[in-house]
Amino acid sequence: MNLVIVESPAKCKTIGNYLGSDYVVESSIGHIRDLSIKGKGGFGVDINNNFAPEYVVLKDKQDIVERLKGLAHLAEHIYLATDPDREGEAISWHLQEVLEQPINKVSRVVFNEITKKAVLNAIPNDRGVDMDLVHSQESRRIIDRII
Length: 147
What we know:
Radius of gyration: 16 Å
Number of strands: 8
Distance between the termini: 44 Å
Mean pLDDT: 96
Strand order of the largest sheet: 2-1-7-8
Strand content: 15-25%
Structural class: alpha/beta
Number of helices: 5
Largest sheet: 4 strands, parallel
């Protein structure tokens, strides 16, 4: 079994139909982690340590994260198919972090439309998470929190 994680639950059935029975498609329902509200100033950012962020799983996403972790342990491979923007890239990185799976078991796939051709083409063209996009989103989130 291969696990595909998307953001929107509305996409799961369609993508699952395209990929077939060797794939389980689940949703993170958007972001699963955010900056903590603890620490100095409640920023979730250590401003004295190069603005290092401290992330926590969102309270309303704890059950989702546990379900995804359980499926991840059973999966042969995990495809992170979140939206093709910096927010989606950051969500994929957060998923990769919380699933605690070997890096070679997790990859990122991107499709710009929910069509059979686009989805089937994305799987063999998987890649790693683009950390430049993740850092872009992370920087924006840190600045938003501080301001």
